[in-house]
Amino acid sequence: MKPRHITLSTTPSAHDIAGLRLGDIVYLDGLMYTAREGVYMRALEVKANIPEELPSQSAANFHCSPAAAIREDGTFDMGAVTATASFRFAKWLPEWMAKTGAKLIIGKGGMSSKDYKEYFVPNGAVYLSTVGYGTGALLGRGVEKVEAVHWHEELGLAQAMWVIKCNHMGPFIVASDLEGNCLFERENARISEKITRVYEGTRPAVLKRFGETDDRNDELIG
Amino acid sequence: MISIDLLQKTAETLMDKAAIEIPDDYLAGLQAAAKSEDGELSSFVLSAMLENYEAAKQDRRAMCGDTGTPRWYVKMGNEAQIDGGPVALEAALRRATANRTDGVPLRPNRVHPLWRTDHNNNVGINAPEIEYGFEPAGSWIDLITVHKGGLFGTDYRMLFPSDGIKGIKRFYLDCLVAFGKRGLACQPAIIGIGLGGGKDTCMVLGKRAACLRVVGDRNPDPRIAELEDELKELGNSIGMGAMGFVGKNMVIDTNIEVGFCHTGGMQMSVHAFCLSSRRAVARVYDDGRVEYRTDPNWFTAYQRRETVEWPADTIEASQ
Predict the structure, then answer these.
(1) Do B67 and A25 touch (CB under 8 A)?
(2) Interface ipTM above 0.90
(3) Are strands B69-77 and B130-135 parallel, antiparallel or unpaired?
């Protein structure tokens, strides 16, 4: 069965979000902003005012630093767009979502089902993963316009808050739903069932590492 | 004498090529993987990647928004001379890195590890790395740039002779499974393995095995070549594919490089290159010719030499 393809607004309704299923392919229209550790720290720890009206302008937070430059005349040149791994931002996300009303968290690799159940579901939000990784050129084609860039002087171009107008930007994959299910954990479980036979004929290293495990259901994050 | 302006101009072209054009050998490997893939989501991911390479070339935009950490490998024929010397060459490579970060544009990834200072040009303290190699004859310089991703898919372990091949397979699988989950390693990728040396040498060899050898290439030691085949197959039998979804393609190829090590140890490193496998190469001659290619051909017989001397009559064999 081929995945479903869906077009979604970056200010989606509760009904739109409820209709998404794990593994759906999504294309986005509307305003999206990038925010990662630099923006989170500045907004939540330094308490700087967030320079956009959220979530009325955008409820889509992209964990991304674009390959982009600011030209001398103040215009922007945005080439490729690729996400960065999201699990590192779990520390700030509950507060960020409460403050900004973000409904779509977009990034690489997803979060844990624990994160989804604890603060995505109560906020009516889901996680969209980029594809690949990464389809930087395809996503770059979906950038109709760079509306603004904030805090680039304080944070540098990579950590700045880029506000992007998306025109059918994608593909993204739905990686969580409103029950808090996690696409990556579902896939991990399917793979883990058969993995023991692959390890036949290998042996654990004679010198152990502190904290090492033999449980191959484990993963590095979460 | 090789012109410094020509070296900088060539280096700038290489920055663009590495970021925008998927190397042919890796593309063919991924096309074959896409054909064989039957995991529903993995298949979608691979077809999206193939489309992405086309979009990058058509638009002349970077394949991936994460530029990785651009670095340089410089190989010089023994008779090569640079206008301005090696210091001028290093300045030219740093200028090329900065100019094309802004020009393509690429993401300015490089920051100070503690103060997070970003020069917005991928140049800073010890960045970009510039590594050197030499060949016994020739008045050319090979410039190679690699933009490898920076965060996941690489690990090191001190193994011992008693761990043997079984221990090597175990650590290899551990790395692929651990970093493969959720696709953190950006697989399917070229996997490089370093064996032996010291810890630093082991890491360098493994990284070069991933980034400076092409898909389909085999180590000249037939038993190592056999192990490369075996490990490639092992990686693709995990049941995991692109993005950590159910699938059968984790590895496009597995390359192993070795270095003599301490008699009690068997150091091992594993490195995953990525779905964009950004590498570009040019040979610059002293008569002004420039030849672009995608195979770094780094590991020549001379680079892998095993003896004390390098006899003159073997020079030809190294070409």
Answers:
(1) no
(2) yes
(3) parallel
DSSP 8-class letter at A74? S
Tokens of B309: 């001397």
A124 DSSP assignment: T
Contact: B234, A85; criterion CB under 8 Å: no
Measured between CB atoms, which of A82, A140, A206 is closest to B162?
A: A206
Selected residue of B59, B64, B99, B227 to mutate for chain A interface (largest A Cβ count, 10 A): B64
Alpha carbon distances (Å) from A194 to A4, B182, B237, B238, B240: 27, 17, 10, 8, 10
Among A174-188, B100-114, B122-136, B300-314, name the one with the lowest average pLDDT. B300-314
> Hey, of A133, A154, A186, A207, which one would you mutate to test binding to chain B, going by the most B CBs within 10 A of its CB?
A133
Q: Does B47 touch chain A if contact means CB atoms closer than 8 Å?
A: no
Give the pLDDT score at B299.
98
CB pairs A-B closer than 8 Å: 214
Instruction: Assess B33–A contact: CB distance below 8 Å, yes or no.
Output: no
pLDDT above 90 as % of chain B: 95
The Cα–Cα gap between A156 and A179 comes to: 37
Domain ranges of chain B: 4-17+62-149+279-318, 150-278
What pLDDT is attached to residue A143? 96
d(CA B156, CA B171): 9
CA distance B84 to chain A (A): 31
Distance between CA atoms of residues B122 and B109, nearest Å: 6
The domains of chain A, with CATH numbers, are 5-183 (3.20.130.10)
Mean per-residue pLDDT of chain A: 94
Q: Chain A closest CA to B38's CA: distance in Å?
A: 11
Per-residue pLDDT of A139-192, as tens digits, reads: 999 999 999 999 999 999 889 999 999 999 999 999 999 999 999 999 999 999
- The answer to whether the Cβ–Cβ distance between A207 and B246 falls below 8 Å is no
- For B222-279, the pLDDT digits (tens) are 999 999 999 999 999 999 999 999 999 999 999 999 999 999 999 999 999 999 999 9
The type of residue at B33 is A
Q: Compute the radius of gyration of chain B from its Cα atoms.
A: 20
